Each structure stands twice: as C-alpha cells, then as structure tokens.
Amino acid sequence: MPTLLQKLFSKRAVGNGSARDCSTGAEQRWASAEFDLAQIRLIVYQDCERRGRQVLFDSKAIHKLDASEPTADETKTPPNRSGACHIGSQANEKDKPPTYQYTRPASDVNMLGEMMFGSVSMSYKGSTLKIHHIRSPPQLMVSKVFSTRFGSSSTSGSTNTLQDSFESMSQTFPSHTSSSIGVRHVPSAPLLFLARSASFFAAHSNPVDMPSRGHSEDGDSGIARSASLSSLLATPQPSPGSSFSSGCASSYQRRWLRSQATSLQHGPMPRWNAEEMFNLSDESCSSNPAMIRRKKIAISIIISLPEREEENHNFQEFFFSHFPLFESHMNKLKTAIERAMIVCRRIAESSQRVQVYLCRVMEALGEFRMTVWNLYMAPRISEPVWLSMISQSAERNLLCQRFLKEMSLLMEHGVKSQFLSALLTAVLTHHLAWVPTVMPSNLPPIKPACQKPTSQTVDLLAKSHPYNPLWAQLGDLYGALGSPVRVCRTVVVGRRRELVQRVLYILSYFIRCSDLQEHVQPQGQKDNPANPCTSPTTDPNPANERIGEKTFPPPPDPIKPIPGTFMEQNDETLSTDTNSTNTPTGLEANTFRPECTEMGPECFGEHVDSVGGGLEHILANQSPLLQRVQFHIGSPREVENVGQAGGLTGMGCGGRGLDRKLHQRLLTDIRRNESSDSALGDSDDEETSSREMYMAAEQTEYELPLPSSQVESRASVNHFGRSLLGGYCPQYMPDFALHGISSDLRLKQCLMADLEHTVLHPALDEPVAEALCIVADTDRLSVQVVTSQRQMCEGGRLGRDVMVSNLIHTLITSVLQLYALNIAADFCVMHLEDRLQEVYFKSRSLAEYLRGQTRVHVKELGLALGIESSDIPLLAAVASTHSPYVAQILL
Amino acid sequence: MNALVALCHFCELHGPRTLFCTEAVHPPSPSPPQPGSAIPGEREREGDREGEGLTMRANSSATQRADMCEGCRSLPASHPGFVSVDGETGIRYLSHQHPRQPQLFSVVRQACVRSLSCEVCPGREGPIFFGDEQHGFVFSHTFFIKDSLARGFQRWYSIVVVAMDRIYLINSWPFLLRHLRLTIQSLQNTALKVFDSEQCVCPQRAVRMNSAFSPAVFPHQRSGNAARSLTSLTQHSNLWDSLHSSFSWLLKACGSRLTEKLLEGAPTEDTLVLIERQTEQEEEMSGWDGAEGGGSNPQSCQSESVQAKDFQFDDGTQEDLIGPKFKSLRHLRQVLGTADFRQLTWHVLMGNQVIWRGADPGLIQSAFNVLKALLPVGCVRAVQYSPHYEEAYRCNFLGLSPDVPIPAHVSSSEFSVLVDVLNAERGCVNPVSDDDILSLYQFHISSANTQPTDKGPTLLNKLEVALSNENLSVEVVSLCLLCLKEEWMNKVKVLFKFSKVDGRGKEDTQKVLALLGATGPGEEDNVRLLKFWMTGLSKLYKSHLMTAVRGGERTLSQ
C-alpha cells in the first residue's frame, strides 16, 4: 500500500506509465524526454599567433580502442531513465585504464573554430563567453575563450607540448595501433589548481592566482560588485529605537545592490572574476604571470538538441534558465583540462603523453556529461511544501496537515538522537532564506489576515530597477543571505527511500525561496509589439517613399510629437484610444496625444488608475501583477485631456510620481534603520549623478506611447525553486539545494572538490566566502556539516557533527506537541512561524548585544538574553543577514 | 530590463554602423547608493581598451557623422529622437541613432562591430551571445534585408541587445529570440515586397548583366543609391517610430518577464493593534465632527483622544515636557529601588490598575511611557493625568493630581497599586540636574495586594536579570524585553486558540500550559499574565482564528 508520501511524490510524475520499478517511480522527473550523453561534445581549440588554429581535443574524433570493456564507454550506453548515470567508478576499479585513439577531426571543426574565436581575433585578455545556435543539425554551442598563461616551469623550452604530440601523431595516422599504449591512471587528486585558503573572509584578500589588472584595487579585491559583500560594508544597521525593521529590508537590499551591480547605466565595470585565464603554469614551479603569450584556448561544449520540437523547446528553456549551473560545470571541466595539459607535459614519450591527456580529459568530460544528465533528468520533489503553500493557498490546510504528520513521524523515528532537531538546526543556520519570511512586516495587512504579506517594496523595486529574479532565487535556495556570503546545500543519505523522502519533504518547508511567475505573450498573438510593420495597411506606397525622412516636423516644439506611429494601425485591442492618422504627413499635433503629457504630481493616479497601471492601484492591491491572470505591459493610454498641453515640465511626471512615492516608502522602510551610515562616506555625488542622467534625459525627444500587449501569467516551470529541490536521486548531485541519495559513496569522493569548486566558481555569480554541505544520514541518524574551509576530519569523517540548538529543539517539540493535542494543523504552522519569528528577534538582541562588545560572555548571554551556547551559531548566522558586523565580532 | 537594444548595419561603404539605439533610463535610485559598494559610474575607464584587434575604439559621433551615408543613418541629425515613458515605473525609453549616455557609446559600438565583423554565425543569419566583463554582454541576431540595388541583392543587419547582467541576458535568450525574430521577419517581409515591386519595374539582374564590366557596378561608385536607408528599403515611412516602440516594448517586456512572489513575516500583534486603533480613532474623529455641539461629554472625549494620541506620539509628548523624567526601565528601577520596582512591574504585568499621584504630570507620563513597554500595545489603556479617579475598566495606567482622593474600593483592592510622588523633604531649591529625581521627589508605593510578587511571572524574572546586568546597554535590554514579550505573546495566542476558540477543558489546558513552559515556579503569575494579555490580542487576529478554525474543521471532516 503506497504511503501518503509516495502519493505526494508521485503526484506529478512525468512519464508514460511504463513499468518503472517502485524504487524510482515516486518522484517527478524534470525532463520529459530522453537525454543522451553522446549529445554533449567537447572541443578544445587553440589559436596561436605563430601556429594558427589547432584542435586540441574533439570528443567526436576520439574513440576508445579497448572493445572488451564496452560498459566503460559511457557515450554508447546512456543510462536508462530510472537508473543513474554512473561513470568513472568502473574505470577507477580497473587496473587498466581505457585507451583512446584520436582519429581525423570531424568535418565541421574548422567552422566551429571560426565560431569560437571569431573571424577577427580580439586582444582582450580576459575570458570571453559565447553561445551559438546551430540550425542544422540543431545544436547549441557554449564556448569560453581564454588567454593562456604559462609558468616558467622546468619544462619550458622543451618540446613536450601537446600540439607537438598531436603533430607527431597525425604523421603516424592511420597506423593508430602503434600509439595505443595503455597509461596508468594518475590518481585523480581532488586538489584544485587555484585552491586558495578559504578563510572566513577569503573574499577580501586578493586571490593570489588571479592576474592583477593593475588599475584599480577594488577591481581585484573581489568585493567590487558583490551585492552581498558590499552590504557587509554598508547595510543599514537596525536602529535600536525601532522595535523591528521592515520585513523586506534585507531582501530588498540584496536585490537593489544586484540591480545596481548589473546596471547598464554605470557602464562596464570590472568584476570580481573578470580576468580568468587558461592556466598552463606548473604549480610546482614559480610561475611568472608576466609571461603571457599571444595564445588563446577555447573550450566548447556542443549540445545536440532533440529533434522533436517540444523536447527541443523544453531543453532550451531549461538550459538557458539554468545557465549559471552549466557554466559552473564548464569551469570545472576547464580546470580539469588545464591539469591534464600540465600533467602530460611532464611525460617525455609522445604517444604516452597523448594517452594521459586523452584519458584525463575524457574522464572530465564524462563527469560533465553525467552531471548535466543528472541535472536535467533527476527526480524532483513534486510538491515542495513552502512553494506549494505560497502558490496554492486554497490547499493550505491540507498541506499543513500533511506536513505536520510527516514531521511527527520523523520526530518519533529519530527521537533518541534528536535527529530532526539537529537537522533543522543545521538547515536553519545555513539556508537562511527563511529569515526574511518571518521578519515582521510593518505594513497593514490586507485581506487574509495574519498570513504573510508579499513584499510590496520589493515588487516596486523589481519594476523600476529590474534585477534577475532567478539570481535572487538561487541565492535564496543556497542561503546566501548572510555576510560573509556562504552557500549551502543539503544532502539526505539513506537506504530507506520512504524515510529519505519524508526528510526531503519536511525540509522543503524550511529551505525557502521566492516563487516565480512568468508573463508571456499569448501564442499566435497577431499584433505583437515586437513587430514594427504589423498592419497590411502599411503596404509600401511609392509616393511616401522618402517622406518619412524628409518631413519630420521641426524639433523646436517637443510637445507635438510626430504623428502616425504604427501602433495606431494595430487592431482594436490597442487602437481604441488613439487617433488613427494614416496620413504620415498630417501634422495636426492635437490629433495625437502622447500619454502622460501634463500631469502634475498631484493629479497623478487620478489619470492612470483605471486600467491597472497606476501606482495607486498597485499599492492598493496586495500583490500587484502576481496574482492576476492577465494584465498589460505598457501604460494605459486613457488620458483624455487634450487641452492640457503647456509647459515642458510635465513630461514624464508619472514616472517621477512613482519615483517619489517609491522613494518615500523606501525611505520609511529602509532609512529608518540607518543610524549613522553617513560615516561610511558621502553619497551625494552618486545620487546627483544618476539624477542628472535621468533629468538630462528629459529633453526634447518626441514622446510616443509605450505599446501594451496582452500577457498571460503562469507559474514558471523552469525556476530554481522547482528544479533544485531534488527527490531521492540515484546519485549524488553537486547542484541541488536539497536532494536525497541512497549511498554516500560518491558523495565522499566528490564533496570536498565540489565545495572548493563552488568557492572558486560560484554559480551565484558573486564571490562566495565559504561553501557548505549538510549531510543528514537517516540510517545512522547523524547530521554533519562539511565546509570548504576544512580538509578531511579525523577518522575519515566528512564534517563536524551538528550541535543541536536548544531553541530549535524546543520549537519543534512544542509545535508537534500542539499538533498531538489536536490543534488545527493550520494553527500549528502559524505557531511554527511565530516561533521562527522569535528566533529572528533573538538574533536582533544578540546583534545589539554584540554591537558594543569586544568579548562575548557566553554565560551572560544565557543569563541575560536567554541565549544558550548551543543557539549561538544559529543566531549569529541569522543576525548576519540583518547586521553584517556580527560575523566580524564573533571571530 | 537593464539593457539597450540597437539596430546595426554593415554598410558597404563604411563598415559596421549603429543605426538606431533604444536605451532604458531608470529613475534615480530609490535607495541611497552604498558608498562601499563601488558602484559609481565615475570610475575611470580602463586604459586598455586600446590595442583591440580591430579599431574598435569609440569614435566620437562627430567624426563618425562626417562619413555617413544614407545607409548608415536612421534619424536625421536634427531629429531629437523618441521617448516613451512607463508611467508606472518611471522608466524612460529613449531612442536615438547613438546612445545618449556617453559611457554606453563605446559599448554599443563594440557590440555592433563584433556582431557584424567579428563573430561568426553559421549561415550568417541567426542568434549569437557573446561578451566579456569589460565590454558588456550582447545578444545579437544578424539578418539580411533585400535590396535590389545592393551587391548580392541584400544588405546585412543585426539587432543587438546589450546588458551587463550576462546571466539575465542568457536567461532571456528564448524570449529575445522569439520576439526579435518577429521584428526581423516583419522587416524582411516588408522589404521583400518592396524588392519584388522594384524588380518588376526594373529587373536589376538584367541591368547588371548588361553592364557587367562597367566600373559603375561597384557599389561605392554607384552614386547616390549606393547605400539606401532602411526606410527606403522597407518604404515604411514611420519605421523609426515603430522600431522605437518595438524596442521599448521589448526592453520592458523582457524586464518584467519574470516576477517574484516574495513573502515577509506577518505583522506583529503590536503593529496590528496600532493600526486598528488608528483606524478607530480616525472613524471616531469623523463621528465627532458630525456630532459636535450635540452634547457629547467633552471630558471623556478629551481623555479618549489623549489616550489614543498617546500611542503615536509617545516620544514627541515626552520631549515637550520639561523637568525630570524616567528614561528607561533601568532608570526607574534605580530610582524606586529593586523591591518597589519589582512590586510595581508585577502589578503592571498582572493587569492591575497602576495609579500615580503627584504634582508633576511630566514625570508621571514618563513613568507610564517606560512601564507601558512591559505590555503588548493592546493591553495598554492609559489616562495620563486626570483631575478625578477613573475606573479600572477604563484604564490600567492612571495619573492623578496630588489632591485627588482614591475611592475606598480601590485602595482596598488587591488589583491596584498606588504610587504617591511626594516632594523631597530636603526642599532643595536648585536641583543639581533633572536626572536627579530623588533630590526632588520621594516615592511611596502602596497596595492591598497580599500575593507574593517575587515568584513570577517568568517574564519579569528574566527581565530583571537583564536590567540588573549593567554590562547590557539600554538598547540590548529593550530588545531583550521585545523578545520576551513576543515569546509570551505567542503563548497567549496558543492559549487563546485552545481555550477561547476550541473551548478545551481544564485538563487539556494544563497540558498546553506545560508545553508552553508556563508551569513550574511562578505558574500562577504566568497564567494571570497570559489571561490578561489575551485581552490585548488584535481584533483581526481573533476574528481570523475564529473563521480559520471553522475552515480547518471542514477540511478535517472531509
């Protein structure tokens, strides 16, 4: 009899009901289609001033020679849907590594080389990213082009270079058998090439291996454009006078900084990871960074797209929305290739050198393929509790009941070891996105009283200063809200599927992120505003041919815009309020009304509210845009007062109206928390410059209405909240914020390297000081935290055991006792949120206590603030999301 | 979207050119920029932009304009450009031939050159993403436009979308591709019609075949027609207005393609009560306006309004008063002494009536302000300073002038405490400072209460530990108090739910009290506190629980 949990996990399972064994059938698969490992091809290309272009690797041109071991050839045997993609372990177990042969390169490599490097070489020293879409056969190509760096190693000046080897090889071609010498595997030490000491504030120190740009200290410090780290310097400190800060303050701050850090208005800015090179300098020798030859290396991943249109579309949507993860794995691949090249240089014998190189690169490619396959195909939690509660408020009661029932069961199961308390202590300490969701809002609630309101300030910010919501979500899931920035994942290990799934289900309530909605133009919309030549009435009319350019009205009067935009020729959905003037020469200014001409600030809102675009509407509406099924992009054009043309000052006042209001709201929400930040510097210059830019823009351009279009809103499928909460997976996954596995074998192999990689190449696109992984073992009922800052613990253990926070333990206990007393589940969950809010308030006290303290008296904390030593790590982490100085004091 | 869109053209005479550019100008930052975050755009441009493989350095628009032909131009030099304003957000979409923001000029130029001269797209038409941290990131789509007079009968264009947020730009690939294809196909189709009609009139192939070896074939020598404008190729007289609208829309739609639903915590009970009182007050005010002169009791009106006002202008009113004041609970404790302070605060927390009688209303008010912090907002009913006694049901904080008699039923009640503020006997005329309250006054506390006040409630015990620890600043103590109050308020909610909403029996209630940690030493006081605080819950919360429980039971029975 299937358990409730199995039903939950299978609710949206994709698949055609084929005979999947019950061990995998219970969870949702992400992809609806097969994905073949051979669909991923790797090309390494070199572009050298002296030698021209040369293919250094092409997986399509590499064949495994030993046919007696077909199982190891992963490209030939893609894993079946229910199974994991296992690679590498077999090869390691064999005494003899596979032998590869490099055959004639594929016919398309020249073209691909052109695409990677471009027809004209660029002298830019940093790395370049490119993505191409190849139409036939349909493929996506992602390339990273690097400048190379050589160290003055002992092998310098020798001829032991890879291209020499290839050249000598191609001479012996096709007598390939002679070069097929098996090479013993070099033990694959997980030590990473660029590994640097990850101290707590690693991001502050200059990464030694990175070449210096030499023009600006900030540019190299790694903190220049980091939203979260800069918040460390300048986050408003909560003022003691206010009893609480706005709930959205820290979320808002993070997003605002991101929008600024990626703003086009500031022009290109050097970033924390700007100059990444292809490093061929030997670590063991003193490298000379000055030795940069004019040589570039491109690494390209080519993914064959599915033939079927829908599968193709689905994969592309997934690929582009999850690009940061793909890129992170490409970086890992690049590091492996660097190492392969360095290692093989030391080998004197040419064919052996090639074998070492090919083996290592093939192994790295195998890893990459498997990771991508798993990322796309692994099962997900079909109903993550938190996101489901946000999006399906109608089912809230049911969800609460399920959630508490599962939690009670788990509590009973691990009661002796305090397993659940330990796990939640760790999760709440490191996946910090729950904190903003309990920080009290100080805005009046609208209807569903006492339920959590959506953040209105963040809503407004997203509209006026767009940032990437996917980025925000990724940071939420990894818990990157504190300072210094740390990212965390949680892996639940256990042989009992049901138990692991129960843990995952429960954690999907505590590991939180925002929900994303996508707004799309309906299919087959006739008059898409992207189309500049919509109407058939714009048939070319020779008489008008050159008029468009010659009869522009003279510029002096900016109030009179030029007539006859194409918009008016659109269909009735758009044109009802616009005077159609098909005669382009008609200069009757008053027949055409630009929207929003002359509204004084006080009349704002009166004019713009009926269709839903006005600010008043937004403020009155609990969650603008989000819950309506349809709305318009673009402004309503219902301004009827033609006669109000007059001064110039009114142009765009609607915008300033909103700006003013937004400003006020944010001032009250944010600035109230700022006590004395002016000490950090004068911000006036900055403000005036951006203001000037905005004002300067209000010159004399002809104003045209902003087109609007029909929009359908739907829950976004391809977002991290859905994709990074994994189910019970066949194998350990390095990307998931949460997932379960049956065995920790591979986890033990990969985890440290993955964590170090995360610090070096965070998918989050901002510097990360520390990467962590919570490993919960349901068989042993243990919870450990593994960190990138610590090498293997004694006794082969991965990490440290978690100290149970008393606060969390009593919290869970009392919530579950309430539930046991038959109090409505809905209320129990509300109580749980209240208790989490208490944790937040406690963190405020701790932060305030630490503010004036040089030494922490743990005993005093316990006596005076009720903060026990077991609670300190949790509370300090929570406090660092609103009071960044806490981390500095505690260390 | 934090990006710009530009139409670029590979001119047969002049190479890659930016024709038309739509940029989004955002309103000035709503939040003060952070000095530490190194955001300023003023940072010096890096010098190493020189030495590009190509001559990619941004020419000034002036020098570029000198060698421009029809094909390299969109708007005439005298044209002011276009603007569209998004009234909701204040974002302005500006279109000109070149970007207005100087720092973007070279970025766009670079994108244009790379899209048309450097990057290779199979089939020459299609999407590419490229870019780096120094030059920005570009989504480019190249395409041909038919031209009966051009070499090969077509001209090469690209539309580039430039942004610094490479992740978002890549995330947007499917969206941009879908919509730019519409734009491009629309331009191509329109131009194709023009091409066909021109070919009907004068088939160029034949013309060219006939003059096969004439030097006039070379485009730069075909005077005048060498480079036709896109307007001419499409015969779309309002092409640039239309493109402005399309590009502006694209930027807006791409920026709002994804929206976040981000939750924050529910407001605290104190916030809810404040809002409720404010609303009530506003309603009453409007009610009085109508009833004025109608014989309502002005006295009660006054005290009501003082009381309501008191919540919002605590600090303001206190600062208006001169003379000595209590500044904090710790200060009050120092002045009264620990024993009296304990007794007084115990009464406050139990919900007993606290009466202060004295000649200095400012001092009394400051005492109330400090003491009120012990309670949830909903439990505070204060009459600051009254010429006569007010009943306990009307107020739990009552200030009285020295000569007001206390009724016998009050002075004999265990549910009230009286603090008499007496002039200090020393009669010091010039007090050393306002702080020195004891040099001016003596305090005498009396109550008919016989209960011990030193056992509970737990909240008070914990608070006293914090107050007595001089290491803790006043701010820490007040946050500590806030934590304690929230903690006990959450217990209050549970008890309310349990006893008032669900109507559970005594036995069950005792279980709940135990799991809430309200039992044990001081249990009696804890329970009294919980019961008193229950009266301070917001109406909103109570009614929510009343309705929610019905909803919940329905689902349970299903």
Number of helical segments with 4 or more residues of chain A = 29
The pLDDT mean of chain B sits at 78
Number of strands of chain B: 13
Tell me, rounded to a whole number, the average pLDDT of chain A. Answer: 67
Structural class label of chain B: alpha+beta
Separation of termini of chain A? Answer: 53 Å
Largest interface: A-B, 228 and 184 residues
Largest sheet of chain B: 7 strands, antiparallel
Q: How many strand segments of chain A? A: 20
Low-confidence residue ranges of chain A: 1-26, 69-94, 152-160, 167-248, 536-688
Shape of chain A: globular
> What strand order characterises the main sheet of chain B?
3-4-2-1-7-6-5
Characterization of this structure:
The complex is a heterodimer of chains A (891) and B (558). With 891 residues, chain A is α+β, with helices and mostly antiparallel strands. Helix content of chain A is 37%, strand content 12%. Chain A has 29 helices and 20 strands. In chain A, strands 2, 3, 6, 7, 8 and 9 form a 6-stranded mixed β-sheet that branches. A 6-stranded mixed β-sheet of chain A has the order 16-17-11-18-19-20, with helices on both faces. In chain A, strands 12-15-13 form a 3-stranded antiparallel β-sheet. In chain A, helix 26 (825-851) crosses helix 28. The radius of gyration of chain A is 30 Å and the shape is globular. Chain B is built from 20 helices and 13 strands. The model of chain B is unreliable at 31-64, 215-224, 290-318 and 551-558 (pLDDT under 50). Chain B has helices at residues 61-66, 102-118, 166-171, 173-201, 204-210, 230-234, 239-255, 269-291, 298-312, 314-320, 329-336, 338-350, 361-372, 408-411, 437-440, 458-468, 474-501, 506-515, 523-534, 539-557; strands at residues 3-11, 15-25, 82-85, 92-96, 126-132, 136-146, 154-163, 258-261, 353-357, 382-386, 397-400, 416-423, 441-446. A 7-stranded antiparallel β-sheet of chain B has the order 3-4-2-1-7-6-5. A 5-stranded mixed β-sheet of chain B has the order 10-11-9-12-13. Chain B is an alpha+beta fold. The chains are: A alpha+beta (891), B alpha+beta (558). Chains A and B meet through helix 3, strand 6, helix 6, helix 7 and helix 8 of A and strand 2, strand 3, strand 4, helix 2 and strand 5 of B. Strand 12 (515-520) of chain A pairs antiparallel with strand 8 of chain B.
